[in-house]
Write a structure and sequence with these properties.
The complex is a heterodimer. By secondary structure, chain A is an alpha/beta fold. Chain A is 38% helix and 13% strand. Chain A contains 19 helices and 13 strands. In chain A, the strands form 2 sheets. Chain A has an 11-stranded mixed β-sheet with strand order 3-5-4-6-8-7-12-13-11-9-10, with helices on both faces. In chain A, strand 12 and strand 13 form a beta hairpin. Chain B is an alpha+beta fold. Chain B has 3 domains: 224 residues, no CATH class; 114 residues, no CATH class; 59 residues, Arc Repressor Mutant, subunit A, CATH 1.10.10.410. Helix content of chain B is 33%, strand content 21%. In chain B, 38% of the residues are buried. Classes of the chains: A alpha/beta, B alpha+beta. Chains A and B meet through helix 10, helix 11 and helix 13 of A and loops of B. Chain B: One of its GO terms (cellular component) is glutamyl-tRNA(Gln) amidotransferase complex. Chain B: Allows the formation of correctly charged Gln-tRNA(Gln) through the transamidation of misacylated Glu-tRNA(Gln) in the mitochondria. The reaction takes place in the presence of glutamine and ATP through an activated gamma-phospho-Glu-tRNA(Gln). Chain B: GO terms for molecular function: asparaginyl-tRNA synthase (glutamine-hydrolyzing) activity; ATP binding; glutaminyl-tRNA synthase (glutamine-hydrolyzing) activity. Chain B: It is an enzyme of class 6 (ligase).
Chain lengths: 537, 516
């Protein structure tokens, strides 16, 4: 992508990336599509995709090719392979939420964000894996099995492991992607597409982005339509964007942002479009806030050190770096638990087996059918949250739990307002406690404990509806990506991404080296630089 | 599903009435000892049955009943409350169902502007306080015709509150006395309707219709009884009453049942009951799970509904994006109460006549059109419209719009009467001709049938003379001092004129002739 971003280098401008290649005819949309489809097949074992929409993608590529031939390209996304998390409604394509409950459900309509991507000429490669109904932080708890982190097979990680005499059996020692949008993260990370849609309710886009070395962007609540996103927590859900660089995220955001008559929570105020990011030359007018409450004991020393280095970097380039306080941060997890499970209990009520999705064989009564259908259709995590949520919503508990949690939510949101009012432009925090962990280690804890731990830096942002982005910073000692998070003012998404872009340029995060994994695909990667990197570089 | 609904919650007034003796609580039919009167509403607003006060016999305890109504009325709109799909009466099942109506995952509610305006207008008409900010809530329960597992309603902060409706109840011997009453309106809320379950007992199947554009009125009545001055009694809720008649019957029955129960040493359970149409009694619905916990929570997909008035309207606001209460107030038609008062003042009509004029759809307009075109006295017009015209309509079970007689025709007829061109009797004859709907004007009918009053005094005198000559016995009676005999002569002359002569003039001529 990023073809029309001209970077002034002296007297001439240079265009780069796959979008430019498409425009200049160096590659056709069909060739690009086929390369990605072949990579999807090679990386099938990652379990990134639930459904591969090969026919649809090839047909879209064909149409895109016609447009290019006629000089009627629709823009930066025309002919670009993308993937969509399997909790977005896609017309005519199975949408499962990685749940037995929706196996076989083929929606009759496209989510607004999906439609907008298609309207821009993007090629839909398929639907990506997730935790069931996006409830999880590992992409390990879906009915189609866990997603494997492509970095498990990277040259960077493998080489570090060889140096480690304690390393165990390699095959069972693969890493989780993080989640719940782990399939989308793996799909982008393994070069099977250029951008993917995730969803972000408590960090589900930013967390896997950090673990997979990607840019993971959560827009301001109300900037991007949720129509067609099968909800987890309506008041916190936003469609998320996973790309390999900040400019690409901005291009996708430009295509998706804007009011939607089908989603009454989208805002009408005009937003600067398209989301063209200026290259920030000078950060001296910038004020970066470091929330002191985010320095928790569980934070790995490596992440902590990178966070500190990043702050130093801003400071050394002339930015003002301030310690700020978000005093209600520690209540965020328990507050989120009450609000999330309550909305989940409500949102899951429609899955009763009557109209769509799974239905059990029991037909002695409607009630018995509901009960059995829901027992068979939902996993333990979903059922557990439904039970908790219904408990919190009972008349006798509502005031003590739900209303109190709403009040705490307001306090958490106000913490951010106060921080920004004190002059801070963006906040800089870790995205995750550490780099990705091996699956076998991850599953030692249950989903609830894991989610509570892993969402610690990300979920408060959802309660406040703010934009946030995770940027890959460096590789850990183990050779695994570590991300840091920037949080911006509500609807200052463009400013946030501009800062993130400057930072991205400074840190020069390395490209994942998957040649070993995709040996006979190496040609694609080596010979055609186009497919190996982002739409931009 | 999702047809827009308005819900009124009217809080009951206290109605006192005499204790009545004994009686089984399972008795069929209306309870004895209370007569229920009700008026037909101008709109589907809270109707209260009135229990006329009877003097309690000595030593008897008075009972008071408290009735609260929850009224579900469908908003007249082209599309549903939260989706763009149409609302149409008697459409084929499930033919008007959007993805949202079917609760497909990922769909979101979008509030229908027209429904909000209708709710505001209703609130204004019912003297409510309109909340500038109102909220939507989810009410949860599992039922096959509720595909989302919850219903979107306005539980915590509804669009309108604290209203009242004044109405009249006919009383007295001939129901001619109108007693004004006021019912308090607790709140008006916008609510999504559920679907409709069609039970096929033969195949033990239930079919669901998600159109849900029918059933314009449904009422749940909450009823309790107590002794005045003592705390209110335990209430029962009679659900799903779908006509005013059944509502009145159910309330009458339930009040009496509760009194009987209490007087026989029983107790009233806080329970849901249903009304059995054929048996005319209420029966416990015996909810297996007892009281439902609806687990209300805010609807997160709909922002607070904010309304504006002239003072709060933001400058430069897009009229398509905001709803202005003051603007809706301006479009409010004259309310029935005001119309009735105006009719009484302007035309000197009885209050009960004004009720009749407004209660029959189209009758007021008909009346006003006649008034506009005729020189006849308003009282004459009122009498003709309410007695003759309405009488013919009722007899043939026709609506005003189906009447074969137009306002212009009636106006012309009344003019002929007013100008004494025809007699009252002839006028009735003309009206009967008009009702045949043969397209003749009253003037044509009068001349064809020669119904004009005989204006020619000479020929009338001659006719009187002939009649007197033909009936010498009657003349004799008169002369011998039987004054009533003149009536016979008048009748004979009228008959000879085919009712075309003015009886007063006939009498005058006869008297003159007799005294000469």
């Amino acid at each position: 992508m990023k073809s029309n971003t001209r970077e002034a280098t002296g007297q001439h401008t240079r265009e780069c990336g796959v979008s430019a290649a498409l425009k200049q005819g160096q590659i056709t949309p069909t060739e690009l599509c086929q390369k990605c489809l072949s990579l999807i097949k090679k990386t099938k074992f990652l379990n990134a995709y639930i459904t591969v929409s090969e026919e649809v993608a090839l047909k879209q590529a064909e149409e895109s090719e016609k447009r290019y031939k006629n000089g009627q390209s629709l823009g930066d996304l025309d002919g670009i392979p993308v993937a969509v998390k399997d909790n977005f409604s896609t017309s005519g394509i199975e949408t499962t939420c990685a749940s037995n409950m929706l196996k076989g459900y083929i929606p009759p309509y496209n989510a607004t964000v999906v439609q907008k991507l298609l309207d821009q000429g993007a090629l839909l490669m398929g639907k990506t894996n997730l935790d069931e109904f996006a409830m999880g932080s590992g992409s390990t708890d879906g009915v189609f099995g866990p997603v494997k982190n492509p970095w498990s097979y990277s040259k960077q990680y493998r080489e570090k492991r060889k140096q480690n005499p304690h390393s165990k059996n390699e095959d069972s020692d693969w890493l989780i992607t993080g989640g719940s949008s782990g399939g989308s993260a793996a799909a982008v990370s393994a070069f099977t597409c250029y951008a993917a849609l995730g969803s972000d309710t408590g960090g589900s886009t930013r967390n896997p982005a950090a673990h997979c070395g990607l840019v993971g962007f959560k827009p301001s609540y109300g900037l991007v339509s949720r129509h067609g996103l099968i909800p987890l927590v309506n008041s916190m859900d936003v469609p998320g964007i996973l790309t390999r660089c900040v400019d690409d995220a901005a291009i996708v955001l430009g295509a998706l942002a804007g009011p939607d008559p089908k989603d009454s929570t989208t805002v009408h105020d005009p937003i600067n479009k398209p989301f063209m990011l200026p290259s920030l030359a000078d950060v001296s007018k910038l004020c970066i806030g470091i929330p002191k409450e985010y320095l928790v004991p569980e934070l790995s020393s490596e992440v902590r050190s990178l966070w500190s280095k990043a702050a130093d970097l801003f400071e050394s380039e002339g930015a003002k770096v301030l310690e700020v306080s978000l005093p209600h941060t520690s209540y965020s997890i328990v507050c989120y638990h009450v609000l999330c499970t309550s909305e989940v209990a409500s949102n899951m009520a429609r899955f009763d087996g009557l109209q769509y999705g799974h239905r059990c064989d029991i037909d002695v009564s409607t009630e018995a059918m509901y009960a059995a259908t829901r027992r068979e259709g939902f996993n333990d995590v979903v059922r557990g949250r439904i039970l908790s949520g219904n408990f919190f919503l009972l008349k006798e508990n509502y005031e003590n739990y739900f209303v109190k949690a709403q009040k705490v939510r307001r306090l958490i949101a106000n913490d951010f307002v106060n921080a920004f009012n004190s002059g801070v432009d963006v906040l800089l925090t870790p995205t995750t406690l550490s780099e990705a962990v091996p699956y076998l280690e991850f599953i030692k804890e249950d989903n609830r404990t894991r989610s509570a731990q892993d969402d610690i830096f990300t979920q408060a942002v959802n309660m406040a509806g703010l934009p946030a982005v995770s940027i890959p910073v460096a590789l850990s000692n183990q050779g695994l990506p570590i991300g840091l998070q920037f949080i911006g003012r509500a609807f200052c998404d463009q400013q946030l991404l501009t800062v993130a872009k400057w930072f991205e340029k400074q840190v020069q995060f390395p490209v994942i080296q998957l040649q070993e994994l995709m040996d006979d695909c190496s040609a694609v990667l080596e010979n055609e630089k186009l497919a190996s990197v982002s739409l931009k570089q | 599903m999702a047809a827009p609904m308005l819900r009124w919650v009217g809080r009951g007034r206290l109605w006192t009435f005499a204790r009545v003796d004994g009686g089984s609580c399972h008795r069929r039919g209306a309870p004895t000892g209370s007569t229920s009167n009700r008026i037909r509403g101008q709109s589907s607003v809270a109707q209260q049955p009135l229990y006329t006060t009877q003097k309690p016999r000595k030593g008897e305890h008075k009972w008071a009943a408290v009735v609260g109504l929850e009224i579900h009325a469908q908003i007249s709109s082209n599309s549903k409350l939260f989706s763009g799909s149409q609302v149409r009466f008697s459409a084929p099942p499930n033919s008007l169902v959007s993805f949202f109506d079917a609760s497909l995952p990922g769909t979101l509610p979008v509030l229908n502007r027209r429904c909000v305006e209708a709710a505001v207008m209703t609130g204004l008409a019912l003297n409510c306080h309109i909340n500038k900010k109102s909220l939507f809530d989810r009410k949860h329960y599992f039922y096959a015709d509720l595909p989302a597992g919850y219903q979107i309603t306005q539980q915590r902060l509804p669009i309108a509150v604290n209203g009242s409706l004044t109405y009249g109840v006919c009383a007295g011997k001939k129901q001619s006395q109108v007693i004004p009453k006021t019912v308090r309106i607790k709140q008006i809320q916008l609510e999504q309707d559920s679907g409709k379950s069609l039970h096929d007992d033969l195949r033990s199947q239930t079919l669901i219709d998600l159109n849900r554009a029918e059933g314009q009125l449904r009422v749940d009545a909450n009823i309790s009884v107590h002794h005045p001055g003592e705390p209110l009694g335990v209430r029962t809720e009679v659900k799903n009453l779908n006509s005013i008649r059944f509502l009145a019957k159910a309330i009458d029955y339930e009040i009496q049942r509760q009194i009987d129960e209490l007087e026989n040493g029983g107790e009233i359970l806080n329970e849901t009951r249903s009304f059995h149409h054929q048996l005319g009694c209420t029966m416990s619905m015996r909810d297996k799970e007892g009281k439902q916990d609806y687990r209300f929570m805010p609807e997160p997909n709909l922002p607070p509904l904010v309304l504006y008035d002239a003072t709060s309207l933001p400058a430069g606001a897009d009229p398509q994006q905001v709803i202005n209460i003051d603007q809706i107030r301006e479009t409010l038609p004259e309310l029935p109460r005001v119309t009735r008062e105006r009719l009484v003042q302007q035309y000197g009509m009885l209050l009960e006549h004004s009720f009749t004029l407004l209660n029959e759809v189209g009758l007021l307009e008909f009346f006003q059109n006649v008034i506009k075109e005729t020189r006849a006295e308003p009282k004459k017009v009122t009498s003709w419209v309410l007695n003759t015209f309405l009488g013919y309509l009722k007899q043939q079970n026709l609506a005003v719009s189906e009447s074969p007689v137009t306002p212009s025709a009636l106006a012309e007829l009344l003019d002929l009467l007013d100008s004494r061109t025809i007699s009252s009797a002839a006028a009735k004859q003309v009206f009967e001709e008009l009702w045949k709907g043969e397209g003749k004007t009253p003037g044509q009918i009068v001349s064809e049938k020669q119904l004009e009053l005989m204006e020619d005094r000479g020929s009338l005198e001659q006719l009187c003379h002939s009649v007197m000559e033909a009936h010498p016995q009657v003349v004799m009676d008169l002369k011998e001092g039987n004054p009533r005999a003149i009536n016979k002569l008048i009748g004979l002359v009228r008959k000879a004129t085919q009712s075309r002569a003015d009886p007063a003039m006939i009498k005058e001529i006869l008297e003159k002739k007799l005294s000469s």
